Amino acid sequence: SQQGEEDPQALSIQEGENATMNCSYKTSINNLQWYRQNSGRGLVHLILIRSNEREKHSGRLRVTLDTSKKSSSLLITASRAADTASYFCATDPGTYKYIFGTGTRLKVLA
Amino acid sequence: DTGVSQDPRHKITKRGQNVTFRCDPISEHNRLYWYRQTLGQGPEFLTYFQNEAQLEKSRLLSDRFSAERPKGSFSTLEIQRTEQGDSAMYLCASSLAGQGPSINDYGYTFGSGTRLTVV
Question: Number of helices and strands (H, E) in chain B?
């Protein structure tokens, strides 16, 4: 079963615009991570945010975490065509494994 | 090569045949995971190893599935008597973790996956 659900399921934007995707989860967590997956490939780790953190930045990525609402958001600023991919949140509920959400498919139009 | 390698990249098999996939993790990583991903969905956990010990298996892993990690190095995932419902991408990931449940700050390193098609 999957713990997280991303919203929206699909997002299409113009190059240069910002992209925001959200993740909701069900149980308490130690940390939450975001991964990117290009079509037909494995997943690439982007950023981790711990349960006691509220916001984290990495380059053009900004992640927020609201543990009271059991939700997280990923913001990609100044998007590029190369950002076209599926993005997944993954939660660590302290059970030795990550549980992935259903993903947001992002398409950045040049 | 410092990444996670999976072999083969693609496998087409007839229903009822057995298939075996291989994963070579990053050498210093002590944890190895297998996930399955179907089209349009996120990866679903199948099983994981801490060194050579298989510590957890998902309910998704029926008795037709078996995984091994001899000597705590590479791992194999075998599916016996394949069914069309087994068609999916099988992803391997590894990580370096301590003794507690939580995984390190760097998450998983995934391989490129093996895409299985059962016809």
Answer: 0, 11
Average pLDDT over residues A59-88: 97
| Dihedral sign of CA atoms B86, B90, B94, B97 in order | negative
Residue recorded with tokens 């290009």: A38
**What would you report as the CA-atom Rg of chain B, rounded to the nearest whole angstrom?**
14
Q: A30 and B33: CB-CB below 8 Å?
A: no
Percent of chain A with pLDDT over 90: 77
- Say yes or no to pLDDT of A70 above 90: yes
Please state, in angstroms and rounded to a whole number, the distance separating the CA atoms of residues B58 and A2. Answer: 12
Q: What is the DSSP string of B44-103?
A: EEEEEEETTEEEEE-TTS-TTEEEE-GGGS-EEEEESS--GGG-EEEEEEEE---SSSS-
3-state SS of chain A is CCCCEEECCEEEEECCCCEEEEEECCCCCCEEEEEEECCCCCEEEEEEEECCCCEEEECCEEEEEECCCCEEEEEECCCCHHHCEEEEEEEECCCCCCEECCCEEEEEEC
How many angstroms away from the CA of A98 is the closest CA of chain B? 8
Select the residue from B21, B26, B41, B92 to test the A interface by mutation, using most A Cβ atoms within 10 A: B41
CB contact at 8 A, B90 and B34: yes
How would residue A2 be classed by pLDDT, with cut points 50, 70 and 90? low
What the block records as the tokens of B27 is 């050498």
